[in-house]
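Kindly review these tokens for lecture notes.

. . .
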Amino acid sequence: MEFPQESVKVPRAAFAFCRYTVMVLLWAAFLLRFRELVPAVVVILALSALLGIRRAPLVALYTHTVHRLWPSAEEQVDRCGLRFAHILGTLLGVVCVALLYAVGGRVGWGAVFVFAVLKTISAAGLCPASKLYSCMAGGQCCAFLKGR
């Protein structure tokens, strides 16, 4: 199975704004027990997966506002890897929303906590889902995932 890789350039600050905003929204949802923020994160991640990183809602918002006033350097990112990461994030978010609204309590908020921790790791630039995609696409690691 082939995994395509395609690099695109996005403003570094816009990409950071996207990562940090999603992380802050999840921590705010968890700490304030404001469950309506979790579906908002799911929508942001789903739109990011559908539209691609350049037109992702938070990247586009930053690019068309703040970036015009204070441009930042461009960052090379893997378009397919980020789409994969956004899809996985969307799926994890849907599970969190389902647990919050169906079960609630400790189980639902526990799932949101795990989601917030994963998004914090991702915001720090260590995106596990994107790295997994790169690993599968590049073949330099995780050979067992490619069936070798």
Summary: Residues 7-146 form one domain.
